[in-house]
Here is the input.
Amino acid sequence: MSVLLRVAGLCSALALLTVAFAPAAVAEEIRIHDPWVRWVPEVSERTAAYMRIEAPEGERKILIGVDSPQFDRAEIHESVDEDGRARMVHWSTLRIPAGGERVLEPGGYHIMLIGRLGDALEEGDVVELQMRFQSGEILMVDMPVSRDGVNGDDDHEHHHHH
Ligand SMILES: [Cu+2]
Here is the structure.
């Protein structure tokens, strides 16, 4: 039987995270910080998602799949500069070092969302992303749509809302 654990907004009130552990074991948590999706004009059927993925101490995590019900498909990409030309590399997995984090940000790693299925996204809309890890963990992440990202407080974990 799987155990469902709901963790509400770790750092942002907008982030709601559901963690499903396939085996009924106590696994150390993967934490997702500040997820967001870039707003794009209606003509564009693709956009990108950004966040920080944090792996627990003592256990590296490997992201093996991403999917969104609002898009035809989702892919792990990295923007690279090759002789002054920007291009994107499609990765099949993304490794998060034990006790470390992987930053997905404009100009670097991102989740490419391809083939929007519904209406154009407005600022403040939420895109759902399913993230599957090699350990069996599946995270459902709610990512708000924004023009310029979540506000740039680098120390969100220690930021308290009153
Ligand atoms: Cu891309």
In short: Residues 12 and 105 are 17 Å apart (CA to CA). The longest strand covers residues 71-82. Residues 1-16, 152-162 have pLDDT under 50 and may be disordered.
